[in-house]
Please model this.
Amino acid sequence: MAVKVGKAGAGITAARSHTGAIAGRYEIYRAAFKKAGVIELDGYEEFLAACKAFGMQGRAKGNRVMIITDGGGVGVGLSDACHALGLDVAPLPEELSAKLKSELPPYFAIGNPLDLTGSATDESFALSLQKTMSGDHYDIAIIAALWGPPALTDNLPAMLAQKPGFTEKPILICTPGGEYSRQRFKLFREVGLPVFGTPEAAVRAASVLARGARRG
Model:
């Protein structure tokens, strides 16, 4: 992975004025990165997200993203961010949708994003993840867990990390919120799941994992 600075205008001038003088033409670097299989990152925030994602999860095989959330607004925000970065939030296949409807409560909003509502439990998150990711429909899962629902417990990270039937597919966690939510970050990291505080950061990480597939 690499962050290329000095790509245009004043940045090029500044890069040439000190030890960064090797910065050179951006087009040459882009070609070299592509040939060498280097993933170019868009700034330091994306670099940090990429390090977190690759440090805990493997690269994705494609750009198809499954979003599972207990808050509809966050799910829509994740979907918008995915589209902006070229990730495919594909609709649920009809057969998979029917299976989820038969096994989940009728008040859950079955789709992609899959909204488990404020009635979500550890078990419904884990079941939804297993059902949607076990087949060949999606490459990356983003789980948005809002810790307001009382039915969610500190067992959720370990349950999600089991990955029954899809051990090679990356899972990214998005947990927006205040201090209580941030205190749960450690639980996800302890089981090898990268966790992000905003939808945008989680989607940046997903984008990098998908770009890694194209470099594979």
About this structure: The chain has a mean pLDDT of 83. The domain at 57-215 is CATH 3.40.50.261 (Rossmann fold). DSSP finds ten helices and seven strands in the chain.
